[in-house]
Amino acid sequence: MDPVVQVLTQYGAVGILALVAVVVAKRLFDRLAKAQDEEVRRLEEERDRVIAQAEQEKALLRADRDLARAELGKLNETVQHVYLDQIGRSTTAVNDATQAVAVALAAVRAR
User: Fold this and answer.
1) What is the pLDDT of residues 6-28, one digit of tens each?
2) Cα(56)–Cα(48) distance, rounded to whole angstroms?
3) I want to staple 19 with a disulfide (CB 3.0 to 4.6 A). Which of 6, 8, 32, 81 is the partner?
């Protein structure tokens, strides 16, 4: 026989009531400990889910940033190859036109 049970049964009904109270308290404590363990497990699962979701969002943001960089690179290349060539030819045409106007004005003034 368990020493605690032996001591409590020595006291008769009071001892038995104390034994019942100890058993009930232990069961309530075990139930509370189990509920707390389940809550901790649930919170850990939730934390893991939130962390995984945050990592997915980071990966999507990195992919979006990389895509934006690639598009910006293409746009920069287009500007360098197409528009700068056009701007250069346009500048040459404007300079030629300016010289032609200057020659024409000089001819008109010389008359």
Assistant:
1) 776 677 777 778 878 989 999 99
2) 12
3) 8
Other C-beta atoms within 10 Å of 8: how many? 19
Torsions phi, psi for 12 (to 5 deg): 75, -135
40 touches 33 (CB < 8 A): no
Match 């598009």 to its residue by tokens. 71
| pTM, full prediction | 0.51
Question: What is the rounded CA–CA span in Å between residue 70 and residue 26?
Answer: 65
Longest CA pairwise span in the chain (Å): 142
Dihedral angle sign, alpha carbons of residues 81, 82, 83, 89: positive
Which of the 8 DSSP states describes residue 53? H
d(CA 73, CA 66): 10
Own/partner long-range contacts of 93-101 (Cβ < 8 Å, ≥24 apart):
none
Name residues whose C-beta falls within 8 Å of residue 18's C-beta, 6 or more positions apart in sequence. Answer: 8, 11
